[in-house]
Design goal:
single chain; alpha+beta; about 20% strand; globular
């Protein structure tokens, strides 16, 4: 009887562990100026899945942050940048497809957000590969008042925007115009370091700022989510069962 109970307990534990799929996809960005970890939003599924696909394919490996503006953002994802000449103008490369806009008033351009670059198409469809990481700046309430009056032409910021941009900072004038599809959960310092480099008249860094990306495995993602909750990594049987699972996982 005890053996049966023990077997059932192990089976239940195994089933429960199988159900512990990470809540998000996470991407590690590696540069000579540090590493960051990006959490992709489930609310922007089209952008999320496209980005995961490209990362898995190695599409972003050894590309450049080809457009850098201090107190604004760092932009990359142009495949033409992989073998670009030293002063070659960049920013027009990428897949032939666009991604439909997934713009939400609750997902804004706070510092560390990742947004999808685009041209001036009226549907606000996104580039298939180019993205930017927001640096921005912190605004006073008076500066936000001025932004509403002049740049936003009377459009009022939401309480979320005012709270975020007066504490964390970001680029509020981009809200509603570009799709934000994730945010950095570790390594904001990397964005600050790259945003501080010297650039030419086209905002391209004089010294190439390359990056690579990889998708975190199931185990790495689960450990990261525990870390973000203030918990330690899994140990013992929990870790053993986790090692038996596929390294990859799929979100709905």
């Amino acid at each position: 009887m005890k053996k049966l109970i023990l077997s059932i307990s192990f089976l239940l534990a195994f089933v429960m562990l199988q159900a512990q799929t990470p809540k998000h996809y996470y991407v590690k960005i590696t540069t000579p100026k540090g590493e960051s970890v990006l959490q992709l939003n489930n609310e922007t599924r089209k952008h999320r899945d496209n980005f995961v696909k490209l990362v898995k394919e190695g599409y972003y490996d050894s590309l450049l942050f080809h457009r850098v503006i201090h107190n604004f953002m760092i932009q990359g994802g142009d495949p033409d940048s992989r073998f670009a000449g030293s002063r070659q103008e960049l920013g027009n490369g990428g897949p032939t497809y666009r991604i439909p806009a997934e713009i939400s008033p609750s997902i804004i351009h706070k510092k560390g957000a990742i947004g999808a670059a685009r041209d001036n198409n009226p549907a606000k469809e996104s580039s298939g590969s180019q993205f930017y990481l927001v640096q921005g700046r912190v605004f006073t309430q008076a500066a936000l008042d001025s932004l509403e009056q002049f740049r936003l032409k009377g459009v009022k910021l939401t309480p979320l925007q005012r709270e975020t941009y007066s504490t964390i900072g970001g680029t509020p004038h981009l809200d509603g115009n570009y799709t934000v599809f994730g945010e950095l959960v570790k390594g904001l310092e990397m964005v600050d370091a790259i945003a501080a480099v010297k650039t030419d008249d086209n905002d391209r860094p004089y010294n190439d700022e390359r990056f690579s990306m990889r998708l975190l495995t199931r185990s790495e993602a689960r450990d990261l989510e525990r870390e973000l909750q203030g918990l330690g990594p899994k140990k013992g049987l929990s870790k053993l069962f986790d090692s038996m699972k596929s390294k990859e996982y799929k979100l709905p």
